[in-house]
Amino acid sequence: MKTLGEYINELKKTCRDELLNRYKEKLSEEINIPDKVINDLITILKAVSNPIRLKIIYLLNQTEMPVCLITSILGIDQTLASHHLSILKDAGIVGVKTAGKFRIYHLKKKGILDTLEKLLLHE
Asked: According to the model, what pLDDT value does residue 11 have?
């Protein structure tokens, strides 16, 4: 003979399974995001999830600049700055052009800071 607790647990499972089956197909149709979009978003979110990279984005939002200026302002060495700039470049956030012997970095995704700040403002 089952206890009251066992009946309640069985009822909860049955209810959960019915709801899951009822909405599973509908939800899977509505949440049809292409894998490329998901992967691109993951790449961008990973790229901006580092304090140094966020500082670089804030700097480049003001003006384009060479890596030597970025390192000077942030107080980091060139190897570390180049590593972070490479991640931002691979994510499509930062672009680079050559001016003589300098590589000048600029922000390609101009609205990225606005988007990140909106995340902070919405609760």
From this structure: 65
